[in-house]
Specification:
The complex is a heterodimer. Chain A has 18 helices and 10 strands. Chain A is α/β, with parallel strands linked by helices. The longest helix of chain A has 22 residues. The chains are: A alpha/beta, B mainly alpha.
Chain lengths: 403, 311
């Protein structure tokens, strides 16, 4: 009897640490979406339920993310999984050898379209992340203000300007966008407008230099952009993206041009307004475009201590089953990229997709090949807003940098 | 009379003056300084001669320096930040330190009442995190958030995008920093003024010197070493400044690089990379910091000589 007890005890002692080890796999996930801790937490909890692997969400402030992630990876303290930016920003990390190459992960090649994958493929053909979500850019509007003023949702750019003028005449700030953050004026406003003027098929001609960045079309884009400037709020020079969101949320402006990712906060509990959204309208007679930008994928850290678990998670995300669960919980405003019908019916994703239906969708114009123009474009837009450059001058300045 | 020796110095293991007996006393400090201050600094000078971000770094000689001074964009940003830094420094040197002396002179005046109270009041901002004060002032200077209040108070002319306007942004950031740190020189000058023997002031009084003469002829010359120290501290701290711009503007030194300082420029090139692609160039960053280190040295050494070397 004593012997039996001793054996049992010995078995227990041996088994305990093993059981503990099996449960012990905890992965970390880096992200720039501090707003989404709750929703992503729900997704990760579901995954833990299914597989027993715990993943901890560790987001960093958006504007600090690239630098922080880079430092972490450089020093070998990077998260096991991390949000990856699309195109060159993400590719650059893969080229430095930080990413798990996803080409052979089951589902990646099968469940995503060529164009979705191209946003997450580096120059050597390595898929560096599982495509996860695309974003769009909208004009958000305050329904109560529109109703009060008897304003209908505009369908052309000219009507849009009329709406702005009408609001301004009524003493209401039409748009709450500003230029202090140095990114949203380009990414959301200007690049949100571009698909109305240049289609995805026409874009490569600009990238190769066949068409000039100061041709008639581009000058027209800058001209139309400049027409919005009088409708920006007083002191727009010191309004950043957060300010713009809060102003709109508090009802201090009637509209806001921002990314689809802001929908969750704007429509959420923080603010007491009823909002609607529409795509930035195309000029009269032009075919309407829709800005649909591959925003982020989920990448694995090649130096992770748990490579198997990391790959398993990526595989799950690349499967319709995983993507469906993800689509149910990911924050409003992120559109799933998987080539399967995963969006919950009647949800906000479906509503956003509906806005883009029948329109020429394209990503942010400069992202694929012209990222070097990012900072110069921000500078030129600032100059237009301050009245220091004409649309023609801005276009010329950009064209001079792209040969 | 035979020389009396302290018991500790008797016997065979006595410490003999002369030789390098003092070395053992400074070894701990030397170690800490060497490992945590000198080595990283020297290594950063070495880094400025290399290229590449990860793995194998490639030796490129002075290529980073050549790029820093000849590349159209990089050199333009560098000299812009350099110029901004001098303006930033001038605000502190002239305004902050003058205010420091003024406050200290008032606080140490023999007829001053409630000294402790005012002293605390002036010093409190120094104890608040820069991020907090920066953010508060950012809100106060924003026409959206402060506009209504100011207009209601009849101060409508103050409603301007102070931090968004190229002409005013750097001044505003500098003034906030001056407001925050004026307590430090004040405290140092207070201590220095208190160190002046009363007899000197009394003697001057008896000789018929007025307050103005006493201040310029006696009190200021007596605190010159402290003035020198404060000047050096201001100089060094200002050329290392980063946080106040970070909290009030963006890391790009918005608007249009008007508040870009060496600190933010270094961060952008050396650590973060330019938004949005964000590929850092540690070599260029190190070249920027090495250049600034050399410049600081050139500024600090003569100041030290002029103000501290007389004794």
């Amino acid at each position: 009897m004593k012997k039996l007890l001793a054996v049992l005890l010995a078995v227990l002692i041996c088994a305990l640490p093993m059981a503990a080890m099996a449960e012990d796999v905890t992965l970390t996930m880096g992200s720039w979406r501090t707003d989404d801790a709750e929703q992503v937490g729900a997704l990760l909890a579901k995954y833990e339920e299914l597989t027993g692997v715990k993943i901890v969400f560790e987001p960093t402030t958006s504007t600090q993310y690239n630098a922080t992630l880079r430092l972490q990876l450089d020093n070998g303290t990077g998260p096991d999984l991390f949000y990856s930016r699309s195109y060159s920003t993400g590719a650059e990390l893969c080229e430095a050898g930080f990413n798990v190459v996803c080409n052979d992960i089951p589902g990646v090649k099968e469940n995503f379209t060529e164009s979705a994958l191209s946003a997450f493929t580096d120059s050597e053909g390595h898929v560096f992340a599982v495509p996860f979500a695309a974003v769009s850019h909208f004009v958000y509007y305050n329904k109560a203000i529109f109703e009060e003023q008897g304003i209908e949702v505009p369908t052309t750019f000219e009507e849009f300007l009329d709406v702005c003028q009408k609001l301004k005449d009524a003493g209401i700030t039409p748009l709450s966008n500003g230029i202090a953050a140095n990114w949203d004026i380009l990414e959301c406003v200007l690049l949100g407008m571009v698909p109305n003027y240049i289609t995805a098929e026409e874009r490569p001609a600009y990238e190769t230099g066949e068409k000039k960045m100061n041709d008639e079309t581009w000058v027209k884009i800058y001209e139309d952009f400049a027409k919005l400037v009088p409708y920006l709020p007083e002191g727009f020079a010191s309004i950043d993206n957060d300010n713009a969101n809060v102003m709109f949320g508090l009802g201090q402006s009637a509209m806001l041009i921002d990314g689809s990712w802001s929908y969750g906060t704007l429509a959420g509990d923080d603010y007491d307004i009823d909002i609607g959204f529409f795509s930035i309208p195309a000029p009269e007679g032009a075919a309407a475009g829709f800005s649909l930008h591959p925003d982020f994928g989920i990448a694995g850290n090649a130096a992770s201590e748990h490579p198997e678990e990391v790959k398993a998670f990526l595989e799950w995300l690349a499967s319709p089953e995983g993507a469906k669960i993800a689509a149910e919980v990911i924050p409003a405003g992120f559109l799933p990229m998987i080539n399967a019908d995963v969006a919950p019916e009647g949800g906000i994703v479906a509503e956003m997709n509906a806005v883009g239906e029948g329109k020429n969708a394209d990503m942010r114009f400069i992202w694929a090949a012209m990222m070097d123009l990012y900072t110069p474009m921000v500078e030129q837009l600032n100059a237009i807003c301050r009245g220091e450059a004409t649309p023609q001058e801005a276009a010329d300045a950009i064209a001079a940098l792209w040969k | 009379m035979e020389k009396q020796r302290h018991p500790a110095f008797q016997g065979g293991r006595s410490i003999k003056p002369g030789g390098v007996y003092w070395l053992r006393y400074i070894i701990p400090a030397l170690l800490v300084y060497g490992v945590f201050m000198a080595y990283p600094m020297i290594d950063s000078v070495r880094l400025s001669l290399y290229e590449g971000t990860t793995g194998v770094r490639q030796f490129v000689g002075f290529a980073n320096y050549v790029r820093l001074f000849t590349d159209e964009v990089v050199s333009k940003r560098f000299w812009n930040a350099f110029g901004n830094n001098w303006i930033f420094f001038a605000y502190h040197m002239i305004l902050q330190n003058a205010l420091g002396i003024l406050f200290a002179a008032i606080l140490t005046n023999r007829t001053m009442k409630g000294r402790g109270f005012y002293q605390t009041l002036i010093f409190i901002p120094c104890t608040i995190a820069v991020l907090v004060t920066g953010y508060l002032f950012k809100l106060m200077m924003n026409p959206v958030w402060a506009g209504t209040t100011l207009k209601n108070a009849g101060l409508g002319f103050l409603v301007r995008p102070w931090l968004g306007d190229r002409g005013t942004a750097l001044s505003c950031v500098s003034l906030v920093s001056v407001w925050q740190w004026v307590g430090i020189p004040t405290m140092m000058f207070v201590a220095a003024f208190q160190g002046i023997p009363d007899e000197l002031i009394e003697a001057a009084d008896i000789e018929g010197s007025n307050a103005w003469q006493t201040f310029w002829r006696i009190r200021v010359p007596m605190i010159m070493p402290v003035v020198g120290m404060v000047a050096i501290m201001t100089f060094v701290n200002n050329f290392n400044a980063f946080d106040v711009v970070f909290s009030m503007e963006t890391l790009d030194g918005a608007p249009d690089y008007a508040t870009d300082l060496i600190g933010t420029l270094f961060y952008r090139y050396g650590i973060a990379g330019q938004h949005p692609v964000g590929i850092p160039e540690p070599g260029v960053g190190a070249a920027i910091s090495t250049t600034i280190f050399a410049m600081l040295l050139c500024g600090v050494l003569p100041t030290l000589r002029a103000t501290q070397g007389k004794e």
